[in-house]
Amino acid sequence: MAKINKRVWLTFGNKTMVETPALWRALKDYPDVSFDIRQASVTAEIGVMAVLFEGEEKRLTAVLQNLRDQGVGVEPIEKNVLEG
């Protein structure tokens, strides 16, 4: 199956979420999905990351749903935001 890329903003909205290894948890069961943190701003109270994921669409959907289930905000990024 073909690999695709998805660019998303991940938002960790409180101190508990900032201190939780949510990205690691989401990806540990999906070694075939790669990610690249393109931009990040993290404080003690909030974190925002621009992340590029690559993998099969079904696997990417599962990883992103896992992040949402953990309480992480997941929003798509327009392509030109990262590349412009």
Structural description of this entry:
- The protein is α+β, with helices and mostly antiparallel strands and 84 residues long.
- The protein has a single domain (3-83), classed as ACT domain (Alpha-Beta Plaits, 2-Layer Sandwich).
- It contains four helices and four strands.
- It has helices at residues 15-18, 22-27, 57-69, 79-83, and strands spanning 3-12, 34-42, 47-56, 73-76.
- It has a four-stranded antiparallel beta sheet with strand order 2-3-1-4.
- β2 and β3 (47-56) form a beta hairpin.
- The termini are far apart.
- The relative contact order is 0.32.
How are the secondary structure elements laid out?
Elements (H helix, E strand, L loop, with lengths): L2 E10 L2 H4 L3 H6 L6 E9 L4 E10 H13 L3 E4 L2 H5 L1
Antiparallel strand pairs: 1-3, 1-4, 2-3
Which residues form runs of ≥5 with pLDDT under 50?
none
Instruction: Give the CA-based shape.
Output: globular
CATH topology: Alpha-Beta Plaits
Mean pLDDT: 92
> Strand fraction band?
35-45%
Spatial order of the strands forming the largest sheet? 2-3-1-4
Rg from Cα: 12 Å
Helix/strand/pairing class, anyone?
A: alpha+beta
| H/I helix tally | 4
Helical content class: 25-40%
Tell me the number of structural domains: 1
CATH superfamily: ACT domain
Largest sheet: 4 strands, antiparallel
Short description:
With 84 residues, the protein is an alpha+beta fold. Helix content is 33%, strand content 39%.
What distinguishing features does this structure have?
single chain; about 80 residues; alpha+beta; Alpha-Beta Plaits; four-stranded antiparallel sheet; 4 helices; 4 strands; about 40% strand; globular
